Amino acid sequence: MSMARLAAPATWIVALSRQRGPLRLYQWLWLLVCALGALAAAAPRILSQPIRYETVATVQIDAVGRYHELYTDGQPDDDYRAVEMQAFELLRARRPDLGGPTYAVRFVPYSDGRVEIIAIGRAPLEAQVVADEAAETLARAVRAAGGREILRNLMGWELTEALQGRQPETAFQRLLREIIRTQAFPLNRAVEPVSAYITVDQLPQEELSDLARALEVREAQLTRIDIPALEIRRTTATGATLQQIDADLLRLTAGRQAIREALAYLYRNLGAAFAPDAPGDAYRASRAPLPERAVDRRIPLLLSLATVVGVLFGAAGVAIDRSAGAMRKVLELWAYRELIRNLVLRDLQVRYKGSALGYLWTQLAPLLLMLVFWFVFSAFFQADIAMFPVFLLVGLLPWNFASEAVNGGARSVIDNAALVKKVFFPREVLPLVAVLSSLVNFVLSLPMLLLVMAAVQWMYAPLRAIGAWTNFSWTFVYLPVLIGIQTIFLAGVALFLSALAVRYRDTVHLIGIFIQFWFFLTPVIYALDRVAGPLAQLVRWLNPMASLIEFYREILYGNAVAFGQIPTPNLPALDSVLRVLLTAFATLAIGYWYFQRRSGEFGERL
Hints:
By secondary structure, the protein is mainly alpha-helical.
């Protein structure tokens, strides 16, 4: 290794850490553009922050006595988290739009059994009501966790009585047998005969309360979750599947009726109605106060931070320019803009040469691919995502842009070997042309996307029910920002792979496999927020395209919601956009550095 190569990193470090001489005019302009650009990109997100109100209610659980199984070594364990998840599901069943930045609930448990329920609402009263309801639901779910074992013992004795041929002595015993018969109350352990004589009127008051809460929770699950889910599946089922669903519906409906009658018996005969604020082993210790003011949106601080980030980014660009002559290279590429334009036009003409439909393939190809995925996921996987064709197409178009750019970029230098050997021009023009031609193809397909969105939304019944014909949003104006970030990222990938393919020809054959693997790691045909938390976060950080697809969906489609709900377009989180932007520029810098380092070998290797 030569001394020049060893000294190169040191030269870069000195250039980036200590600049000499005054900045030139274009460098000052670059700093200004970066600062204003960061501000312009961040301002819509910052200024459009919704007004939110926050309040807190409290639940107290007996963590060392009756409900000690929910805690391990003084800390909430998996059993507690299962109870918390059950409470949240019940809340979501009653309030389907719960979740998101303006309408949410969060549980914060402590080792002493205290649980803070933090609720966020769009109005003070909404936040207060949700916090109190969530606290009551959690207290009910905790008691239900204890009541399930009591119910299992009661059903075990009743099973013993039934096996011995004895008739039920009370209405409650008859209802227990109906619950057993219909299997309407699944338990973590199967009901088994027990020899100990036990009836409901023998239970202490706390155990009686737990039993009633278990039946209440199960009745709510059947009414709001299990039976509606079966009814939705029934609309698309056929044959044996339809018969099984009908049988399950009849069974669970009968079981729900038995549970309701059992609850009425407990309320009427044994006084088991729930008083959530009455002190006990699990109760709502304090109600939520009405919020006096909205949550501080910190608009001046965030705008200042965005400006500082822009200035720092601009300063890094100036440092790179002064050490590596980046502006010189940009001006050189600008001088060859006619060549770039002609090569892009040539690529587009070759793409559709000899085809009868020509340009229309930019519209038809992604549309047909969307129809294929729609058929497969609707017919075989029962995808439950609202306006699924729009969901698919918004992910497919940016992915096609990435796939074409990477495929074309990797082969760009090899496919133009004759041009490289005979004509002098900046070699990086070739991978950049591959990316730009794919970009033009992507932009030309956007009108078809808007037409499909309008058609699907016009036919979507929940939108028409509220008097809206489309769900278009002003967030569409953010589209050029995302296209720009994706283009920068793909340019870096194309530069790197084009140089690598010249040096190692096997790269060209591996690209297809790599893109297939990359496709399934990118949420094109699924929603990443439905993947387990840590894995989803890892995919976002290691795969910039995953974040970009999510950004496109956020501004064009909205959040992924179940069929029957309405997705709401929004702007992506500012910190996530900045992270992907920095990743894109880092990819471009690495790709360009590697391309420059290998470009001198192209003549002899081609």
